[in-house]
Amino acid sequence: MSNTITIEQLTALNDEIASLVRGGMPLDLGLRELGADAGGALAEISEALSERMRGGASLGEALRAEERRLPAAYRTVVEAGLRAGKLPAALEALSNYARELVELRRRITVALLYPLIVASLAYVLFVVVIAHLVERFRETYEVFQIPIHWPLALALAIVETAVRWWWAPPLCLGIAIVWWVITGGSHVLSFNGPARPLAWIPGVGRICRGFQFANFSDLLALLVEHAVPYPEGLRLAADATGDERVRAAAHEFAAAVEQGWSGSGRDARRFGFPPFLCWVLTCNQRGLDLARLLRHAGSVYRRRASNLASWFKLMFPVAAALVIGGGVTVIYAASVFGPLARFWLDLTME
Q: Residue 213 and residue 275: Cα distance in Å, rounded?
């Protein structure tokens, strides 16, 4: 039995559940049909959920039974949606977030292809051509009895290391590619921190946190609309983001609210929420008024994250080509012309 489900499969399961609930169709029958049409982990999970629900389990109970293969944050989204009576809306917001991250990752992958090809070709040329060229420089220096200065000495040391460990860079690249493919198929992409496999890339963490705050605001609005106690709604909405920092901030804030805390938005910043969301959470509004403010906050953070994602998709391919491709070109040129220029200078000085 497969223990993992890819983010694409989880999105398909999520969309199927949302469509069935919105259409008033029996979940067990719809999930059974999905399992028959799908394959791999998605088929196994869909059929397992269908079997449990035919046996009398609720959707929440059936999902909790699949805790090994479904992320806890996803189960929390479903629980919060069920509590609010707006499960399709909660699942739709989650699907939109997941699709945005999948598209972002796809753009990053495509953008990295050209620089990686350039870097690979440069490495092969370095090992095959530059190593031979630098060795000829060394022999020429010995023939003319010219002292070897630091540019050539450095090049000789690098070449010696490269020839001895030529297999290490291809091995590291292969491991990186395998890691990228494996993490791309994992639900950790959207439910465990700000897309951890992408978080090392500047800007991605900010985009993901924007979507997380948008989902947090929208889900909390649903819960507030349906009279879920405010502290409990804070905890459920934060747990659904899957981000430990958002979760810790919301749980701390919920505990403060239960203890009668009545500070201002400025005071609430110590909990870790962004300024506008702090103001919304502490504006002393309740019921439908608070829900409207939370929905507005959600639209603000989602629009901001979408705009950042659009700029990132446009600029990242250019930046990757300039930094990686350009950097490799400069290093390759320096390794060729540096020792050559120094050799001409040494000849003129002799």
A: 12
Encode 288-320: b = buried (16+ Cβ within 10 Å), e = exposed. eebbebbbebbebbbebbbebbeebbeebbeeb
- The structure tokens listed for 56 are 């009398």
Q: What is the mean pLDDT of each run of 10 residues along the chain (350 residues)?
A: 64 80 79 75 82 82 78 75 74 74 77 80 79 78 77 77 84 84 53 53 80 84 79 82 80 83 63 81 76 88 86 82 79 75 71
Would you kindly state where each structural domain of the chain is located, as residue ranges?
7-70, 95-350
Structure tokens of 229?
């106690």
Query: Measured between alpha carbons, how far is 350 from 339 in angstroms, rounded to an integer?
Result: 16
Alpha-carbon span 63 to 61, nearest angstrom: 5
Q: What sign does the CA torsion over 73, 25, 223, 62 have?
A: negative
Q: DSSP class of residue 26?
A: -
Residue listed under structure tokens 């110590």: 270
For residue 318, CA distances in Å to 14, 114, 333, 348 come to 34, 10, 21, 42
**Rounded-to-integer distance, Cα 319 and Cα 206, Å:** 18
Compute the Cα dihedral for 294, 7, 193, 73 and give only its sign: positive
Residue 47 buriedness (CB in 10 A; 0-12 / 13-18 / 19+): middle
